[in-house]
Amino acid sequence: MLLRSERRWYHLATTYALLLLGLLVVLVPFLFMLSTSFKPQQYTFEYPPSLWPAEFTLRNYVQALQRDQFYLYFLNSLLVAVATTTATVFISSLLAFAFARLEFAGKNALFYVLLVGLMIPPVMLIIPQFLVAKRLALLNTFPGLIVVYIAMNLSLQTFLLRGFFESIPTDLEDAVRIDGGSRWTIFRHVVLPLSRPGLATVAIFTFLYSWDEFPWAHVAMKEATRRTLPVAIALFQNQHLTQWGQVFAASIVALIPVVAVFILFQRHFIRGIARSGLKG
Amino acid sequence: MAEATSHVQQTSKQRQELSLPARAQRRLSRQGVAYLFLLPGFLIFGLFVIYPMLYSLRISFYDWNVIDAARSTFVGLDNYRTFVNDPIFQRAVLNTVSYAAITVPAQIVFALVAAILLDQPLRGRTFFRVAYYLPVITSWVIVTLIFEFLFNSQAGFINYLLRDVLRLVDARVRWLADPILVMVPINLLGIWKGVGWSMVILLAALQAIPDEFMEAAAVDGATPWQRLRHVVLPLLRPTLVFLLVVLVIGGLNVYISGLLLTDGGQPQGRSHFILTLMYAETFDRLNFGGGAAISYFLTALVFVVSVVQLRLLRRRVEY
């Protein structure tokens, strides 16, 4: 029979051993990406593989950003993600406000229609979306990417925001209404300011979604100078099979904003996921 | 807006004087405001989600002419019949279903272990949680390329590990050139990328279990295993069912990793998944009708599998 303190020690040691093993499995692939991005081309597949660059270089980054135009793809991604996020936050809070606070005919039916968006696999819509975008001359344009990203996010974000809006007490609104405030005033000056955490969660998830989205951008943006990062990286790797240093340099550049947003807003993340099962 | 202002300013006497049609009109205009709030959202949603969904069903019954839609010919169920009898499609369904069957239980088990380990007061808890979540927030394209690099046939890290460190194989394995072997990196990637997400969900559910439950079980002399088996798991059941359903849907939708690692179903189309086949059929062979039929097949599969799971498991979720 072990002593209590001994048992506690064993327990703690096993816990940390397992956690560190998991950490290794999670991080080693990332470390290979990081170290390869700093290795000169001829060391990419050195044998045995090494995590520490024998010779350290920034050449892959310089080449990826300048010659291979990844600075441009970065700006494209930024433009698309910022526009999508702004529009999605605004439009889905309008919807959520209507569903949480206003009365109108067909409210339940319309809400169910919106929920359909949560149930269909996104990639199945690519073919008809492609044909619709083609007819509206939206293929190969930024608005063509943005409007589809907004559409794909509306259901989930409206659903999430409606929950936030409903949790705000109505007393304040009644006061505003008695003072003669319109519904727009209530929306703009009462509900929105009080829902900042909810809006932040929506903004973060929409930003990451549009930053990482591949399937739609892959079919809808064939114009080389307007590609976003995921498509640009995948196509670059496909054409330059051996230039892993540059592929990973570009990947790291693409990953930096994601990690920054994640670490800065960790709280919102965890709450958002736990609350709604949002997929990160 | 204006009508709300006037509404408040009117005295009750004035209100009584309003004729019935005027009141109805006012109610209409109040509802009108609500529709203004709905307009931008439903315009976009209708045009890019609802309409495409129905449009796709129509396309799937046609030999669709991409250049001139009016010259498409109605073929009834032919598109569906063609692919159901196609061995490449059957193989794609098998690959997709096995992907879900392998990655989903593995994700749940690893996530459960991680969540239980992290659901205790530990130094560095936040660090582990953030680190484990890293694969989830990294784009599919990037993690797929990392795995492609690690599973390189010549000097990849995995071959080095298996041959030179663990001495499990004699020769380097050509992971990406074989339709069965390529499923190894694809499935491992699916597990590796997904564990962090399930872990966060399970961690939230674990933290919602009141301490008294665990204390009561401990007082009754339950071992940690008994506590897990008879207290924690039953309480987590709704969360586990939720995870199962959501992860299976995600698994059946496997796409980007397959597309990039198999170079579009190579060799001979035997490493396709349902969605990569849909992509190849539509955008490589320009068979939009066939592609739409495949996407509808997947939607139906997702729907049926989800309903069956909920039917089988819901009864014991509500207690």
Folded structure, characterized:
The complex is a heterodimer of chains A (280) and B (319). Chain A is mainly alpha-helical and 280 residues long. Chain A has 13 helices and no strands. In chain A, α2 (59-65) packs across α12 (244-264), α9 (196-212) packs across α13 (266-276) and α11 (229-239) packs antiparallel against α12 (244-264). The radius of gyration of chain A is 24 Å and the shape is globular. The model of chain A has no long low-confidence stretch (mean pLDDT 90). Chain B is mainly alpha-helical. Chain B contains 14 helices and 2 strands, in the order αααββααααααααααα. Residues 1-17 of chain B have low confidence and may be disordered. Chains A and B meet through α1, α3, α4, α5 and α6 of A and α1, α3, α5, α6 and α7 of B.
- How much of the sequence lies in strands of chain A comes to under 5%
Largest sheet of chain B: 2 strands, antiparallel
Work out the number of β strands of chain A.
0
Structural class of chain B: mainly alpha
**Which oligomerization state do the chains in this entry correspond to?**
heterodimer
Unreliable parts of chain A: none
Q: Give the count of helical stretches of chain A.
A: 13
- Helical proportion of chain B, percent range: over 70%
The pLDDT mean of chain B sits at 87
The coarse overall form of chain B would be flat
- What is the residue-mean pLDDT of chain A, rounded to a whole number? 90
CATH top level of the largest domain in chain B is Mainly Alpha
Globally, the shape of chain A reads globular
Supply the number of structural domains of chain A. 1
Radius of gyration of chain A: 24 Å
How far apart lie the N and C ends of chain A?
46 Å
Give the tally of structural domains of chain B. 2
Order of helices and strands of chain B: HHHEEHHHHHHHHHHH
Helix content of chain A: over 70%
